[in-house]
Specification:
- It is flat, with a radius of gyration of 38 Å.
- The N terminus and C terminus are likely disordered.
- Strands 2-1-5-4-3 form a five-stranded antiparallel β-sheet.
- The protein contains 16 helices and 15 strands.
- It has about 575 residues and is α+β, with helices and mostly antiparallel strands.
Length: about 575
Amino acid sequence: MEKITAGNKAYPIRHYVKIMILISFAVLVLDLIISIASISIVNRHSTRYLKDTATLYINRINHDFTYINHYMGWTLANDENLLKMNTYGINSIEFIKLNENLHKRFTELQKNYGQEYNFFYYLKNESYFLNCAPISVSYTDYQELKKQIISYIDDKEMYEKFYSKWTPILVNNNYYVINIVPYYNRYIIGLISADNLIRPLHQINLGANGFVSLVDEVGTSLSNPISSSGKLLQENSGISNLVQPRTTVINEFSNTTFSTKMVIKFGVFEKIMIAQLLIMLLFFMVTSTLCAVMLFFNKRVLGPIQSFSENLAYINEDGQPADFKSSKIIELENANTQFKALVEQIKTFKITMYEQELEKQRIQLDYMKLQIKPHFFLNCLTSIYSMAQIQMYKEIENMAMSTSKYFRYIFQNGENFVRVEDEIEHVRMYLEIQKQRYRDAFIYGIDQEDNVSNVKIPPLVLQTFVENSIKYAISRDSEVQIMLTVKRLQIEEEEVTVIHLTDTGPGFPPNVLEKLRAGQSLDQTEGTQIGIMNTLKRLEYLYHKRATVSFSNLEEGGACVILTLPDLQNTSIGMESYL
């Protein structure tokens, strides 16, 4: 055995002990930094998500406020019931009937925007004040509201404070948001309690002690701070906020004097960081103890370990470990036996890894085969909804049946190969669905030879390229023609299926066409062009790199895709022969 050269200098155990302690300390510090950074990132993302959620709700409320303002204004100016009520006495039968009609109108409005909204009308000349829809306020609050609203109407600054502006008011220690719309001597008042307005945001998880409330311009709380679990909380400050950090998010309503305030107090992230630090500290202590043990047994253990390490160099080239029968240390003999067993386990592990890789490739193939975007399904539902609005019942039947057949084919098909006839029928169904959406924006033709019906090809391959033509070729300026041709050819004594797909659109962009011809991956960072890349990978896996796909632009304009698919002896084999 050769001597250890100067380039392979050996070090004492103390040297390695110092390195272990240094590494353990560095890992402890790095874990602290990563934990703090991770908590900061998660908090920012959580805050942004919660703020976006609140913004969506606030935008909806702003839309509701705007519509209700318009509805109340239109009713004051144009509703015949309210116009005629001024001409009759408040105790007359005609007045009562007109009042009932007005009550029905605003009851319908409540059904659309929630029973929490309350509506009242006030006829100043008759000094008549009454609700024009079912109310959700207590009788005492109603009496106090009536007094305050009449005083607001008599106020000269009423237009500036309340006209088309939802404003908070305090009634019997309860805050309400009110809007007064005037028209000559008639007034309609919209009202909702602050707690009811903010109630949907209580369902957002802001932590055990997090809450959401409605606040005015100076920060005064207009609603009770309630957690997502329904628990009434108190806004704490000072030391409690230092113990449990919090994040405050303010979202303002448009054309109002109040906003939402969300206080996020998760706390779980800080607990995770403390747990991680404790684990790393325990690891540091164990490492230090191990180093001490190594130093203690330095002289007793170093010799046998060195002898064992030298004998390991004599392992045979075929992977069989050397025998240590001459050794007088029973531990080393046991190590020899265990090492041989380890070699056998490594071989078994390699076989297991191979089988796992095979399964991984199969799962990847299925994933790429079934990966579809949900926006197509949503577009179908939107189209059906639009047809329903204009009572296109026959078109709705056709659209619903086509959509059902389209998705039934996708979800029920679990094979790697299907008949060309079935795949073409699926493409035809897809094009008919798109015809319902784009009407006369495109025409299509499908030409297939009789001898290709039972040929097996991968499912959803044609769908990908046809969808690409629909997406990029169709415009409202001119009618686009899409042509699909499937035929059988014999190339170099081999039967192949050749599929031509052309359109009269703008064609492939030069940079995309260059990458496709060079076999380079397309940019998928924006969530686009995923279908083409997945299809190319599927063809590569299933046909063992024997299938070819060519891309080009036609001289007269438009894109052209040609797929050449050879016949496989056993289409059920899938990935096994490829791996």
